[in-house]
Amino acid sequence: MMADFCGTRYAIATSSGTTALHLALLSLGIGCGDEVIVPSLTFIATANAVSYTGARPVFVDSETETWNLDPDLIEQSITPQTKAIIPVHLYGHPCNLDPILEIANRYNLSVIEDAAEAQGALYKGKIVGGIGDLGTFSFYGNKIITTGEGGIVVTNRSDLAEKVRILRDHGMSSQKRYWHPVLGYNYRMTNIQAALGVAQMERVDGIIAAKKRIAQAYTTGLQNVAGIQLPPEADWANSVFWLYSILIDDQAFEMDRDRLMEVLKSKNIETRPLFPPLHLQPIYNQGEVLPIAEKLSKQGLSLPSAISMSNSDIQRTIEAIIGK
Ligand SMILES: *Cc1c(COP(=O)(O)O)cnc(C)c1O
Fold it and tell me: Among candidates 147, 143, 115, 127, which has minimal Cα distance to 15?
């Protein structure tokens, strides 16, 4: 179902989005001594999967237009050790993939799309996840569809699909049972989770439509509020608005992001800050400065975006923000 959904030849289910990323990297032969370019502004699993292989994640800043990996900053981070780029379609908005694919092609790098937050999003009319060499998705409880925990790797390449399948299942040979030519893992999805996933896939279009309905309602209510910047939607993009996220300019809004989160919390409205950039995380901090990611992370918050939200829930959130 996911192969059909993404328009790819293969889809291999895994135990999580993180293990899907790990297997995608291993299938490309990435390991010690290699470098992989990742955005700094993402969930930490994107970079951790690189670290698990022994390779080093190299952090690149975001672009203002999409909040995603800035294609103009990639080349300066490429070294002879660079093997791959992982564009992340953050908060449901696709990355500007064409220039990323062009650079990857020119330097002979692989591209793994981390589509964990963007199932169903379109880049120039094409579904994300199915565009790079491999794409990965997460089916964690807060993602577009869920199997509790779960994930999947999609690809058009039979060689990579076969490697992912073998590495997922203890590295066991597809020819000879209990014979293990490579060091593998148990990263399989259980059949119980898969059954949940099938039922979720039957309603995925409705789930995505609900995310877009919520986004439209927030946009209508918040578009003329001084100091609030709405989430990106580039004219070549079709976002699924996984989490509807806004930026707060503390001067113009006359309140900063953290204070707004407290005010909303006091009215029983739960929000989330944008991810802290990975180059500032304790396990990765080497004193780098990536100003756009840092600014977005400082100013951004995600509003309640559950598909069960009623119009009046959304209106109450909008009024609480405006009335702060
Ligand atoms: C959720 C997420 C992951 C990890 O998925 P899990 O299923 O939680 O392992 C990876 N990358 C991004 C961008 C995510 O949002």
Answer: 147
